[in-house]
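Supplementary notes for students who missed Thursday's class. We covered one full example, reproduced here. Read the sequence, then the structure, then the short commentary at the end.
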Amino acid sequence: MALLSSSSSSHRTSLASSCPQFYAATSHADSIGFRHRLRLPSRPRPPISFPRASSPTHSLLGAIPRSHGRPRGRSPRFFVSACSKADAAGSSTLTTKLSEFRDSCWRFLRPHTIRGTTLGSIALVAKALMENPNLINWWLTFKAFYGLAALICGNGYIVGINQIYDIGIDKVNKPYLPIAAGDLSVQSAWILVLLFAAAGLLIVAWNFGPFITSLYCLGLFLGTIYSVPPFRLKRFPVVAFLIIATVRGFLLNFGVYYATRAALGLSFKWSAPVTFITAFVTLFALVIAITKDLPDVEGDRKFQISTLATRLGVRNIAFLGAGLLLANYLGAILVAIYMPEAFRRSIMVPAHALLALGLIFQAWILEQAKYTKEAISQFYRFIWNLFYAEYIIFPLI
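Structure (token representation):
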């Protein structure tokens, strides 16, 4: 009996820490029952005058069990159920907060830039392996994933540091970004970008040697001076375009291809397809740098950020970007025609012709829409889709 009493007491003590209401109710009920068994005198009670049936008090008193002054058997279960529901609500709240933080971090990384980095890396690694199929070692797959993780970290650092110093502009141009929307604090953003930079550098230094590490540091440096005062080179259109074209065009393509050949035990050597994609994507990145300011004209003018779009107008810059891309596609078609030994003409010519026609059609839609902000944003997204498409077809050409 004493053992059962001790077990019951320890069980109530454990419940007390998780649900004070249950502990209070059972303790009160036990004290009443103990007093009844020992026939201890209870305190005198004043006579009870029951209110009318419609009174809430009557309903409450009617709900209280009266046998021996003790709650009925279902009462402890009620309090345990209440505590379980409270714990479940707390767990649900925590899950919701974690989900919201994950969503904020994903938007902070600018997913469209991550897709470009990922597709570019996969395409260049695939091309290097297709050129040397006899040297393929599937254990190098892990090294490729390390490289991709490092590139995503570098991408996250560059776009993140830009958002930290562009909060005011983003509240006008991109209010959906997490810092501008208030979904991510500046302190949390700083922690994220520093973690991205440190993790990327550690991965590259540990796996890819000093030369690739120096290229990686150069990319981080260019991304920093692009956004951070007192440099903030994004204020100067030509310099800003060159930085974006260098990082997203040359450094990404050259660095990934160099690292892949080094992992295969080969010295670096330009091939015709890799030379083509590096030149093509560098010019494409320049177009992205020009057209990225099209949806941001309102905020750039408000904060006196000088861009080609604010100087020359949205329509002129849209035509300039489309013209440069058409020249890029025409060049790709001519290269395939005049160098059939290096390229698959049957794929390269029709693929680039279709992409060029799609671009012309999208520019026509933009013209018909009178360059509204929604139409401009759609045009800019289409340019990114063309960028993805080029990397998708690259291993096949």
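Commentary. The chain is about 75% helix and 0% strand. Residues 112-396 form a domain with the Farnesyl Diphosphate Synthase fold (CATH 1.10.600). If anything here is unclear, bring it to office hours.
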